Amino acid sequence: MRIALMALLCVGAAPVMADTWPELALQSEHPVEGMRGANLSGLALCLGELWAVSDRDDDQIYRLDQHFAEWHAEALTIDVPPPPESGLPWGVRMMSKAVSPLRGGDLDFEGISCDDAGNRFVVSEAHAAVLQIPQMGAPAWLKIDPALVRQARASGMLLHFNALFEGIAVNPQGNQIWLAAERERRGLLTIRKKQSVWDCEGGCVLMSEGGLEQPPPQLKVKAQQKDFADLALFEGKLFTLERMAYRICRRTPSTGEVERCWSFANDALTAGRLYKSAYGNTEALSLDAKGAWIGVDNGNHVRADGEKRPVVWRFAAPQGGWSAGS
After folding, report:
1. How many helices (H) and strands (E) does the chain have?
2. CATH says 2-316 is which class?
3. Residue among 272, 224, 273, 229 at smallest CA distance from 247
4. 176-181 and 165-170 as β-strands: parallel, antiparallel, unpaired?
5. Where is the Phytase-like domain positioned along the sequence (predicted)?
6. pLDDT by residue (tens digit) across 5-58?
């Protein structure tokens, strides 16, 4: 049974229900004050501190003060140089440029990760680029081999506006990065640092898949395109946040193959937590040994209970830990 379900996930042969997998338990919920552009789109635990990005803010990232039930986002202003040429086609680049005044930002930061030295890495969806923000010194865009975008597009990814890189994970040594292509098709890619350039040693594409996914029944919507909303690397495994399915999946870092998944739909989709939206709203993921932080990007939507701010949920780790069922 389990093998069959995993096969469906990998090849997209048919929609898979989010409640197929064991449920995680919600421990706490934290509305976030102080994010200028709201729209929390990425989370990362860096040297014991939780950092966040907004896809509406180009010139700052946020450290989350967790001392109270309602968290406060403390802005770190960053001086971002002009983004590099990505190799994205003209039409995709022009669409991003056209909507940036309406969105409130040109860069569209969609994920954040960090290494053991405290360097933070932020992925720009609009430019398919990665910004490094060191502990000391000026931010700089990584020099990435253009083969990354070429290989992604050849595999059916990064073909559509607003469906580009949605998540990022960096290894502790800071010399390998994983990127998640959001949808139509979704996929996982990796690049490695070679002196000053990040390249596609052995190929960048780990996996690419399309197909539909049936959202949890609480949403009362039809099947949607499979997607990735964020990535996290923990204890040598890659974890994907799968927005429409309301689940976290553990994957093999070298192939992207699904090993095990956990749903968080039951607690995330109670009546008071629902939005008037046909799409999932979870955008950010960070893991530690005791649990997972999941960030909600509510956009302009107001929750059924009246909450208008971004929210971070704390879910307990599954019984046996994140390596359970290996």
Report:
1. 4, 24
2. mainly beta
3. 229
4. antiparallel
5. 40-185
6. 333 334 333 334 444 799 999 999 999 999 987 899 999 999 999 999 999 999
